[in-house]
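Ticket closed. Logging final result for GNAT family N-acetyltransferase.
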Amino acid sequence: MTQPISPSGPLSGAWRPMGARDLPAVMALATAMHPDCPERADVLDERRRLCPAGCLVLPDAWGKPGGYVLSHPWRMDRPPALDTYLRRLPPRVDCWYLHDIAISPALRGRGAMHDALRILTRRARDHGVGWMALMAAEGARPVWAHMGFEPMTGVPADITASYGADACPMRRALFTTTNI
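Final structure:
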């Protein structure tokens, strides 16, 4: 059973744009929550600078980042390898690529993941793409499958392998109806 991600549903308002000042806390979360997928801070900051609309933080009770999203428009058949610079966004894209999302255990269970996916769905549609894509890693494939993402083929093996032995490229169609 997949969880509906309604682009017209109410947003909690908790997610906010990621700023440069958030990077140390984002790096701390990334290191703690994704120990087998390390990335350099400047690689993550490049994504923030290239696509501010796709990079968000979820403040905790003290206003510090307790979650984050890094995403941007891209091409499904060539997702960026882990810990690599993008340099620029491609001129022709076919998906909104969810590079990373992490939510601290203290903030889970409140709908933040669904809110983030609603926001990113709107960004994707505003950008004129009909797909969201990601690389499920570190055992996350069942979570993404539950959210309606399906494995996809055609991604070069070296890119997939950069995310670890269990990595799986996945995608989800973004429909024009609110029942997705």
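The two ends are 12 Å apart (CA to CA). No further action required.
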